[in-house]
Amino acid sequence: MSKARNRARRLAVQALYEWQMTGTGESEIHKRFLEDKKDKTVDKEYFCELITGVIEQAEELDATITPMLTRPLDEIDRVEHAILRLSAYELKNRLDVPYRVVINEGVELAKTFGADQGHKFINGILDKLAGSLRATEVSTRKK
Fold it and tell me: Coil, strand, or helix at residue 142?
């Protein structure tokens, strides 16, 4: 797992949270987060892909996440919602990233930014999502 991608995910969760809370436009989010973070250790290309992909596919990602939940999506903590969207995007669109990496990253993001014990919730949902979106990869890994 690359540290630059890890930092891109961390930044993306913060940006997606802002987008969810304020409705700030995608281009403004790209600009503000990349200008504010002139950190050379962030994979900026990956950050941009994540933000663009999640925003463009938000409804589709929510539709993928919703069946895995035990409560309505609008009752999910906003930070956890951002993490779930980000992770669902990676599971669906970034097959080069192993599902276990996606789950681990999501759990770590929840530990950092989410509610107390939120990482357990994220882990359970991402495990179900991986089984659904990456069934072949998951079944070959469990053998």
Answer: coil
